[in-house]
Amino acid sequence: MGPPAREAAPKLIEALNDECGWVRSDAAESIGQMGSFAPEGAVAAAVHRLLEMVNATDSLERSAVVGALARLAPCVPNGVEVPARALGDAYDCVCTSALESGRRWSIGNP
Hints:
- The chain is mostly helical.
- It has one domain (5-107): Leucine-rich Repeat Variant, CATH 1.25.10.
- Helices cover 65% and strands 0% of the residues.
- The protein has 6 helices and no strands.
- The longest helix has 16 residues, at 92-107.
- The radius of gyration is 13 Å and the shape is globular.
- The two termini are 14 Å apart.
């Protein structure tokens, strides 16, 4: 996403609170892709909100959140707990997201 992503950060963080699960899910994925190009403080705010969303009722949203947190792994406190819990999820898409992101979590390389 590069440097232009900085402009989108505030709107994406705002979108994490949208009433629609698809909007929250897409915002979570976008923030994860933004990574180090996010403005200072935006990643911390996003990580905080994403950690609140880990137990979302929608499986696709949980999957997106796990993937986004994996991309932001160095900024996630106790990060390895998230994919470990996600592996036990009842839905395959969440487990798959945890498996795909496991490498990022283990090496801390978003």
